[in-house]
Amino acid sequence: MRSNVPTVYSAVSDVDRYTEFLPWCTTSRIVERRAVGSSAEDEQLTTEICMGYKHLSATFGSTMHLQRNRRIQSTSTPNDYIEFCSFTWEFAPIGPSAARIDLKLEFELLAAEHAILWDRLQDRILAEYLNCFQ
User: Fold this and answer.
1) Quick one: CATH architecture of 5-132?
2) What residue segments make up the domains of the chain, in order of their start?
3) Nearest residue to 18 (alpha-carbon basis) of 43, 69, 66, 52
4) Which of 5, 31, 55, 126 could bond to 46 as cystine, CB 3.0-4.6 Å?
């Protein structure tokens, strides 16, 4: 990615601003923020994000574990569409103005029709979302 690690990390961890740049994000907020462990670099966030497209919308509650400029792991609570959803972002510098970003997404959809829709649209959706963080 043509941005440095702190820039990309800041965008991914700034949940309150997701509505400004994420497609279909209608609301986003940090419900709770707290330090974790003895390191001032580690935090845990409780978040609430609402995604909507046309007549569909869903609210995702999640817990995010942040290790500043290294890793963000987010696990969502079940809702009307998903049984389980987990994102893990890992950040590594590639020189002073570029970064390697590894994104792992795991999820389980509740309905077969949602799985079929995801299979058809996943490449487009993921590309669009990843572009938002550049």
Assistant:
1) 2-Layer Sandwich (3.30)
2) 5-132
3) 52
4) 31
